[in-house]
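2024-03-11 09:14:02 DEBUG pipeline.ingest accepted 1 chain
2024-03-11 09:14:02 DEBUG pipeline.ingest length=153
2024-03-11 09:14:03 DEBUG pipeline.predict start
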Amino acid sequence: MKKYIYIALALLSSSLGFTACGDDDEGGDSNYNIVADAGAAVAGDYNGTYTRTLNGESESANGTITLAQADKPYYVNVTFKAVPELKMEETTVKANIVQKNDNLFIISNTAGTGNALGTSFRIYVENGKMQANFLLKQKVGRKEYEYTYVFAN
């Protein structure tokens, strides 16, 4: 019986020695205003410049990316408007969105949505400014190339 009492006391004393860790204990910043619907917070048209690069050669053109609230709070609909100068057709995709701090939102590819932008697509929206990075396969003549795109406003 003494053995069970010692085991119970050992378990009780060890459980009193631990405390729960919050975000701040892990070095994270939880002192910002979390929005209920990140997609609604960033919704709008972002006008800027696309730069398309292949094998070190770049060309640029002006364009627009539209973000719209999706059917769930952690998703956003992203529309890359057509840019004829870069032979880029209009594409709309559904993507994940997370809030990093008061003013920074990160949008990334949603697995399984079958979008045309590949797995490396990422958009940063901070204080009304946007930067997007993605890969896009495009045909030129009979060949298909995978271009690297950067969009900034």
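2024-03-11 09:14:41 DEBUG pipeline.report The radius of gyration is 23 Å.
2024-03-11 09:14:41 DEBUG pipeline.predict end
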